[in-house]
Design a protein that fits this description.
By secondary structure, the chain is an all-alpha fold. The protein contains 16 helices and 2 strands. α3 packs across α4, α4 packs parallel to α9 and α5 packs across α12.
């Protein structure tokens, strides 16, 4: 009873604080921390899921009313949660190290960007862009195209393991990006480095503003992805993936069809990225190859590792933590240091205004992020929410 009252009070207090101080990053982090507390608190499941549903369906949009940027951050979190859950299948469950995962995200994004923009007239003649309602059809098209691409990637790498598999998948990710960058001639498919814009948006139901609409759509897709992950994890397919991850020879001896299971892992993981790629292109209205660099693949992999390999809650929390770190905490910290520098604040007798441009705080955001990851791997290598098997392995 005490835990339940504390959970309700914490969510209510953090929501009130965000509404009162809508521009405070720390207060918004308090709200996110309260959701994590509710998930981990010793309270009845019905109360836990009710509080989380109210927070995500009612309180988060209300917070977005006071500061639309927070709703944008929440939507980005949803997109990366789905990506992390997809990569978690490939890396966490099946044990196949994929360093080119963002390629599937790009395939989904370009599938709608080409047909949902006037650029398609350059390729196919008149009749484009497709009406906005085709976006919903292309969610399935993006899923199918990305899954097919995942199978095509999986076929030549079936016999590869570890570092060799990582190198090939890394190369695949770069091939997709380079193709997107150069397929503007002789036939202009992708418009090259200039990117594609404007990309059609679907009609928002009930007159919702697009900020709220894309937030709810991302949340709906994330819920569907979590449910699919849960069913796969508890099925014979999930157990086969785990067997392959632990010992491929033993899995083969037990009759696990390695080829089919590996291809299924690549296809399932890629399909989630394809769906979110379609949503991403419609939300952004503009995409170009620089949206799908190798660093994006590393970022998604960091989410899976930070949260806990093979853990669904871990992938969700890892994606949330990394996205908020990149979009809010590190950028906010860098802006704060810039304000101190512009104000000419003196530290240990040295004026920050005299710092050379090489020491601009914004240039060191990635370094700080890397230091945080290294410290995390040193002090909690199993991740924030590790899978039970992984936790037992590291405890030995």
């Amino acid at each position: 009873m005490i835990w339940a009252l504390l959970a309700v009070a914490l969510v209510a207090a953090s929501t009130f604080a965000v509404a009162t101080f809508p521009r405070s990053v720390l207060v918004f982090l308090l709200f996110q921390g309260s959701l994590l507390f509710v998930y981990r608190a010793r309270i009845p499941d019905r109360l836990r899921w009710s509080l989380l549903a109210i927070a995500l369906l009612v309180l988060m949009p209300a917070i977005g009313y006071f500061n639309s940027y927070y709703l944008e951050v929440a939507t980005q979190v949803g997109i990366f949660v789905a990506l992390a859950l997809g990569l978690n299948i490939v890396v966490g469950l099946a044990g196949l190290l994929d360093l080119g995962y963002v390629a599937f995200f790009a395939v989904g994004a370009y599938s709608w960007a080409i047909f949902g923009s006037p650029h398609a007239n350059v390729i196919f003649g008149g009749g484009f862009p497709l009406p906005g309602w085709w976006f919903y059809v292309f969610l399935l098209v993006g899923l199918g195209v990305a899954a097919t691409t995942g199978i095509l990637l999986g076929l030549p790498v079936l016999r590869l393991h570890g570092d060799y598999l990582a190198i090939v998948t890394l190369g695949f990710g770069e091939v997709i990006r380079v193709l997107a960058n150069n397929l503007d001639k002789p036939i202009n498919f992708t418009n090259g480095p200039k990117g594609i814009t404007p990309i059609s948006r679907p009609p928002a139901p009930f007159g919702l503003p697009y900020g709220e609409y894309f937030y709810f759509l991302a949340l709906l897709i994330v819920v569907a992805v979590v449910l699919v992950n849960r069913r796969l994890e508890d099925s014979h397919i999930g157990r086969a993936w785990e067997a392959i991850r632990e010992d491929e020879l033993a899995a083969r001896a037990m009759g696990v069809p390695l080829v089919r299971m590996k291809l299924m892992a690549f296809a399932c993981g890629a399909s989630f990225a394809g769906v979110m790629g379609v949503l991403f292109s419609a939300k952004q209205v503009f995409i170009n190859p620089e949206s799908f660099t190798f660093l994006e693949s590393i970022g998604v992999l960091a989410m899976v590792i930070l949260g806990g390999m093979g853990s669904i809650p871990g992938a969700v929390v890892g994606a949330t933590v990394v996205t908020v770190l990149n979009l809010q905490v590190l950028k906010g910290f860098s802006l704060w240091l810039n304000e101190l520098k512009n104000a000419g604040v003196t530290v240990l007798g040295y004026s920050l205004a005299d710092l050379p441009t090489q020491f601009e705080p914004a240039k060191y955001e990635r370094m700080v992020f890397g230091v945080i990851l290294v410290l995390m791997m040193i002090f909690r290598p199993q991740g924030i929410f590790p899978a039970r098997r992984r936790q037992r392995e590291l405890a030995k």
